[in-house]
Amino acid sequence: MQYLQARCNKGRCGYWGNGPHNCKSPKDPRGDENTPKNDTYDNLILLCSIDHKKVDSRPSDYPEHWLREIKSKHEADITARLNRNRGYEQDLNSLNALSEFIPFLDLRTMAMDLPHKLSLDFDISDVFSNFRKGNPQAYPFWDKELTRLWKTFLSDAEAIENFTSSNICGDKFDLLDEFETDHTCYNTYVGDDNGNFVVMNKRFLSYEQIDLVEQTVSPLLQSFIYSHTELVEYIRFQFKDIKWKRRPTG
After folding, report:
1. How far is CA 243 from each of CA 86, 89, 197, 230, rounded to the nearest angstrom?
2. pLDDT value at position 250?
3. Quick one: which of 23, 41, 161, 240 is 20 to 30 A from 111 by CA?
4. CB-hemisphere CA count at 13 Å for 65?
5. Rounded to whole angstroms, what are the CA distances from 141 to 131, 134, 137, 200?
6. 171 vs 25, 72, 174, 181, 200, CA distance in Å?
7. Whether pLDDT at 244 is above 80
8. How far apart are CA 236 and CA 143, in angstroms?
9. 3-state class of 156 per DSSP?
C-alpha cells in the first residue's frame, strides 16, 4: 500500500508519495489563501492513497479536528503496544507459567460434567498455591482487573473442589469433617476405577441425597462458568500473546 503524508489542519495540504510535491494553498480542501503554512509534525498525518482521496474529496465529513483525533488515537494505540511495561510482561509470564499446569480452555468442559463427575485435572487451587510459593512476587498481578477476576475465579473453583471432596451426612454436607452427627457419612464423590475422575458416590447415596447433590452443585457450577468466562475473555483481550495449553486428547 502506498502511504502519503498530509497536513491535517486548515492550511496547505502537502503530500509525499514517490517524490515530494505540494498542493496549491488556495485549493486546499481545509484551508484558504489566508492559512499560514505549517510543516510541523503536529500538523502531519499519514494516510493511504485511498483515504487521502476520500478525506480531501469530502472535507466537511472529515474536518481538521477529526483528522487530529484519529491520528491521536492511532498514536496512543501504537505507543501502548510498543511500551509494554515490566508489569505487563510479568503478568504475561505468570499466565503462561500457570497455563502449563492449568488447562484454562478446558476447564469449562470439565465443569460441565458435574454433577456426575469431575476430572482430576480440575486442580486449580493446589496448582496456584504451589505457583505462589515458587513465585511470591507474581501475585497479586500488576493488572488490578486481572487480579479481581482471578480472585473470583479461584474462589468459585475452590468451592467446586471443596464440594467434590466433602462428605454427606443425612441431608447435610461436611466440607471439613468438623461436625458430629448420628447419621452415617459417606464421601459425596469417590475416585473412579481408572483414576481420571471423581464420580458421584451413587453406590452409597440415597435417591434423596443424590437429588441434594444435584441441587447443591448447580449454583456452584453456574458461578464458576460465569467467572471463568469473564477471566478468559479478559486475558484474551488484554494478553493477546498468551500461550494457551490444552489437555492432551486420546
Report:
1. 18, 13, 26, 18
2. 53
3. 240
4. 1
5. 13, 15, 9, 36
6. 86, 63, 10, 11, 15
7. yes
8. 14
9. helix
Query: What 8-state DSSP symbol labels residue 160?
Result: H
| Residue that is written with C-alpha cell 476405577 in the block | 193
C-alpha cell at 23: 498542493
CA-CA distance, 228 to 232, in Å (whole number)?
6
Q: Please answer whether residues 107 and 228 qualify as being in contact, where contact means their C-beta atoms are separated by less than 8 angstroms.
A: yes
- What is this structure's pTM? 0.66
CB 134 within 8 A of CB 97: no
Q: What is the rounded distance in angstroms from the CA atom of residue 43 to the CA atom of residue 58?
A: 19
Q: Which of the 8 DSSP states describes residue 189?
A: E
Q: Which amino acid is at 226?
A: Y
CA distance 186 to 173: 10
